[in-house]
Design a protein that fits this description.
Shape: globular
CATH class of the largest domain: Alpha Beta
Strand order of the largest sheet: 2-3-7-4-6-5-9-10-11
Bound molecules: adenosine monophosphate, magnesium ion
Number of strands: 15
CATH architecture of the largest domain: Alpha-Beta Complex
């Protein structure tokens, strides 16, 4: 069974030894907890796929501790639009932002799923940066949950999912943002938002006016990122967006996740109401959403009904995840 350890010189030393010997360490970031392996060791990266049950065609995000190190992991050509866009967006690092760019030739196929590009991120959380500095190698890491289940926002969530398969889970408490990173793919002349996150489309578009939104999955011929497959991030209990919820739901077997304070009447309509924010503060909603889904998923309910919000700012990321979780 995995040991949950706060970040300390001792736990970082242990993490370093496990990573160097080709093992896996779960670690906190500001988005969700990651399941990390040395991105330069093929067999270590294969363990990530095996442990998560992740399809082998879904590439991993590589984490490093500085823009300079990130740049060295690319094959970008100086004085090109693509290089300049990487520099412009890379200035936002450390941040909950992943950039997809042409890969340096040093990555095993397992990391990039054989693509010519690699997804790179310099995370913002101090705990993640301490881990990356201690291990002194780029770390490939998806979220530390079984494939297609809800991402973990606490060390205990990781232990619940993968505790049997891991030695060490580094713990720095609840993650700051609670949703996976924003992903931007930088092409030769344009950039595309593959996955919305806490760093918003509106903020990024200010810096790169060429930035476009990826087409919804239903309109794509082939998925631009396998992680964008519709059914993803979902609990076992059926999820309904509030506007699509069945009108004849059984109050004793249905829970509501609300984004603002609820009324007395609503209280009798549900077995329980989880209020993520009293005043629809969407940063609070994003931070607490996955823990609420995980907790309600253990209650043997028939359905979980979830509030909705405008699809802009961080609301775009919240609705993206809820639409995936409720896709059937
Ligand atoms: P996660 O499963 O949360 O680690 O998310 C990783 C995401 O990054 C998935 O959606 C992947 O498809 C995406 N990704 C990683 N590498 C690439 C790449 N080279 N091109 C496009 N998307 C990528
Ligand atoms: Mg994931």
């Amino acid at each position: 069974m995995a040991q949950i350890c706060p970040i300390s010189p001792d736990s970082l030393q242990r993490a370093k030894a496990i990573i160097a010997s080709g093992g896996l360490v779960a670690f906190p970031t500001e988005t969700v907890y990651g399941l990390g392996a040395d991105a330069l060791q093929e067999d270590a990266c294969k363990k990530i796929y095996k442990t998560k049950g992740r399809p082998s065609n879904n590439p991993l995000i590589v984490h490093t501790d500085s823009f300079k190190n990130a740049l060295s992991l690319t094959s970008l050509t100086p004085n090109t639009w693509q290089h300049d866009a990487f520099v412009t967006l890379g200035k936002l690092w450390p941040a909950p932002l992943t950039l997809v760019v042409p890969a340096a030739s040093l990555f095993p196929k397992t990391v990039t799923a054989g693509l010519p590009t690699v997804a790179l991120r310099v995370p913002q959380s101090q705990a993640a940066l301490k881990f990356l500095q201690a291990v002194h190698t780029p770390i490939a890491a998806p979220s530390a949950n079984r494939s297609s289940y809800v991402s973990p926002t606490t060390a205990q969530h990781v232990a619940d999912d993968l505790g049997e398969d891991l030695e060490l889970i580094l713990d720095s408490g609840e993650t700051q943002f609670g949703l996976e990173s924003t992903i931007v793919s930088i092409g030769e002349r344009n950039a595309c938002l593959l996955r919305p996150g806490a760093l918003t489309y509106e903020e990024l578009k200010e810096l790169i006016p060429e930035l476009t939104l990826a087409k919804p999955q239903s309109e794509q011929e082939t998925p631009s990122a396998p992680g964008q497959l519709a059914l993803h991030y979902s609990p076992h209990t059926p999820i309904y967006l509030r506007e699509d919820a069945p009108s004849n739901h059984s109050p004793s077997h249905t829970a509501l996740i609300s984004f603002s304070a609820t009324t007395q009447e609503e209280n009798t309509d549900y077995a329980s109401i989880t209020t993520l924010s009293d005043s629809k503060n969407l940063n609070d909603v994003a931070r607490k959403l996955y823990a609420a889904l995980r907790s309600l998923d253990t209650k043997g309910l028939d359905a979980i009904i979830v509030d909705t919000c405008e699809r802009d700012g961080i609301g775009r990321a919240i609705m993206d995840r809820l639409e995936r979780a409720s896709a059937s």
